[in-house]
């Protein structure tokens, strides 16, 4: 287990705030022992949540040559046909993965291929479960092409708490299935768009794991 470098500032700030609050509490507000216990427990929980959020667990990639791996941990909240308005501009199979604050938030490439398109869009911070969040919220769109027929578009969508999407690739980069693409800070969603001929292997309500779970087969 390691922690993502993108969390360095957030973790440092969180620990400093917790320490300052604790010192102020001890100096000016320390009261009954059970009140003190609740305060200290709350500080530990807050620090623990922030530190845990940036965890990067070690995983062996489940390489599947004709498969599309989940690019994110979370719960499937939508599976079905949808119009992809940004790049393909046609009907596709859409799979949406909602990432709660308890999920690992590091994202990975669903297939091997070449980065064909990247576009970052600033926006609002609506609840990530809402369908309109994929258009209105801050989001980052990436298209990976294995060949002319096998292309996957996936969209990192910021959530209600999230304030920053981190994405490393550039157009033309050769990428490998399961490698890290970046992360979304604090609660979010990832939408995956596949060709209509893809054989979907998941359904709404399923829990999926980045680098492990097969969403569909070409």
How are strands sequenced across the largest beta sheet? 11-7-8-9-13-5-4-15
Output the helix-strand order.
EHHEEEEEEHEEEEEEEEE
**In the CATH classification, which architecture of the largest domain applies?**
Distorted Sandwich
What portion of residues is helical? Answer: 10-25%
In total, the number of domains comes to 2
Please give the number of β-strands.
16
Oligomeric description of these chains: single chain
Calculate Rg over CA atoms. Answer: 20 Å
**Low-confidence sequence ranges:** none
End-to-end gap: 33 Å
Give the rounded overall mean pLDDT. Answer: 87
Shape: elongated
Structure, explained:
This protein folds into two domains: 2-56; 67-217, Glucose Permease (Domain IIA), CATH 2.70.70.10. The longest helix has 22 residues, at 8-29. An eight-stranded antiparallel β-sheet has the order 11-7-8-9-13-5-4-15. Strands 3-16-14 form a three-stranded antiparallel β-sheet, with no helix packed on it. It has 218 residues and is α+β, with helices and mostly antiparallel strands. The chain has three helices and 16 strands. It is 22% helix and 37% strand. Helix 1 (8-29) packs antiparallel against helix 2. The model has no long low-confidence stretch (mean pLDDT 87). The protein has helices at residues 8-29, 33-53, 133-136, and strands at residues 2-3, 55-56, 67-69, 74-84, 90-99, 106-108, 113-121, 139-145, 151-158, 165-167, 174-175, 180-184, 188-194, 199-200, 207-208, 214-217. A hairpin with a 5-residue loop joins strand 8 (139-145) and strand 9 (151-158). The radius of gyration is 20 Å and the shape is elongated.
């Amino acid at each position: 287990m390691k922690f993502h470098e993108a969390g360095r500032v957030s973790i440092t700030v969180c620990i400093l705030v917790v320490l300052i609050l604790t010192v102020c509490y001890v100096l000016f507000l320390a009261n009954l022992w059970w009140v003190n216990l609740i305060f200290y427990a709350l500080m530990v929980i807050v620090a623990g949540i922030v530190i845990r959020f940036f965890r990067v667990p070690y995983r062996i990639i489940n390489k599947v040559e004709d498969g599309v791996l989940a690019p994110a941990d979370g719960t499937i909240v939508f599976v079905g046909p949808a119009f992809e308005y940004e790049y393909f501009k046609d009907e596709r199979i859409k799979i949406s993965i909602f990432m709660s604050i308890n999920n690992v938030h590091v994202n990975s490439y669903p297939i091997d291929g070449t980065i064909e398109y990247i576009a970052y869009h600033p926006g609002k911070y609506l609840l990530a479960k809402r369908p309109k969040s994929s258009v209105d919220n801050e989001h980052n769109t990436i298209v990976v092409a294995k060949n002319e027929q096998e292309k996957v578009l996936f969209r990192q969508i910021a959530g209600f708490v999230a304030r920053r999407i981190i994405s490393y690739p550039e157009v033309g980069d050769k990428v490998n299935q399961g490698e890290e693409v970046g992360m979304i800070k604090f609660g979010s969603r990832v939408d995956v768009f596949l060709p209509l001929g893809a054989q979907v292997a998941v359904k709404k309500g399923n829990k999926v794991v980045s680098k492990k779970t097969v969403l569909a087969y070409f």
